């Protein structure tokens, strides 16, 4: 059973094929709410489910014999947002940085970077075992090929819980040839300033010569 973490409650139903079942009950660390019953079945409300995985053991007595079964409740929290920063170029390499926010559990998350739909890089975070809501930042350094330029770059988050898959993705960013890093902008500014200075000096010298020629004439 898979539910959203922090959901106010969920219902767990137990039933038995026993003709005359007696004494339905459950054992769990989760907080219990109301119960409802009918012929051969009982359902229980489980409140404020937050643990990423919880076991609930159900009991029933049939013809004097106690029978039991165990159900596992897994929880998840889909990402609040998936954000891809604008690609940052440095010396022909592009830094791609993706943020996946407010997601749980991180250990079941896979983050993938795509260029024009093609998988460029993918990472599973199964090594992380934290049971808290988390913000995940994936950083990848890309050496682009010519076909990668002017193509949309996207970041994708996939959370899988017991066969249920939750997907989310970022807005696309374009990998441009002319995207400038802060260092490139600084160097360009220095070059332009120096070039303008040279033009001013050349213009002043030329003007002075013209004035001298006119005065001699």
Description:
The chain is α+β, with helices and mostly antiparallel strands. Helix content is about 15%, strand content about 50%. It contains 1 helix and 16 strands. Strands 11, 12, 14, 15 and 16 form a 5-stranded antiparallel β-sheet that branches. The protein has a 4-stranded mixed β-sheet with strand order 1-7-6-3, with no helix packed on it. Strands 8, 9, 10 and 13 form a 4-stranded antiparallel β-sheet that branches. The longest helix is centred in the last third of the chain and has 35 residues, at about 180-215. It is rod-shaped, with a radius of gyration of 32 Å.
Rg for CA atoms: 32 Å
Q: Please, how many helices? A: 1
- State the major sheet: 5 strands, antiparallel
The SS-based structural class is alpha+beta
End-to-end separation: 101 Å
In terms of per-residue confidence, which ranges show pLDDT below 50 for 5 or more consecutive residues? none
Helix content: 10-25%
Oligomer: single chain
Principal-axis shape: rod-shaped
Mean pLDDT equals: 78
The amount of beta strand, in percent, is over 45%
Give the number of DSSP strands. 16
- H/E series: EEEEEEEEEEEEEEEEH
């Amino acid at each position: 059973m898979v539910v959203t973490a922090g959901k106010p409650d969920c219902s767990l139903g137990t039933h038995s094929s026993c003709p005359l079942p007696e004494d339905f009950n459950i054992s769990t660390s989760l907080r219990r709410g109301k119960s409802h019953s009918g012929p051969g079945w009982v359902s229980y409300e489980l409140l404020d489910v937050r643990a990423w995985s919880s076991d609930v053991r159900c009991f029933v007595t049939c013809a004097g014999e106690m029978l039991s079964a165990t159900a596992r409740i897994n929880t998840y929290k889909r990402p609040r947002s998936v954000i891809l920063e604008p690609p940052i170029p440095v010396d022909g390499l592009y830094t791609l940085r993706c943020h996946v926010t407010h997601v749980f559990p991180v250990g079941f998350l896979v983050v993938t970077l795509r260029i024009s739909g093609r998988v460029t890089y993918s990472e599973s975070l199964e090594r992380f075992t934290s049971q808290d809501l988390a913000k995940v930042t994936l950083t990848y350094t890309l050496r682009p090929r010519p076909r990668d330029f002017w193509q949309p770059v996207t970041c994708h988050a996939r959370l899988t819980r017991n066969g249920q898959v939750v997907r989310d993705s970022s807005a696309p960013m374009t990998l441009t040839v002319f995207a400038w890093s802060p260092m490139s902008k600084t160097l360009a500014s220095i070059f332009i300033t120096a070039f303008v200075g040279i033009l001013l000096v050349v213009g002043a010298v030329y003007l002075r010569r013209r004035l001298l020629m006119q005065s001699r004439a």
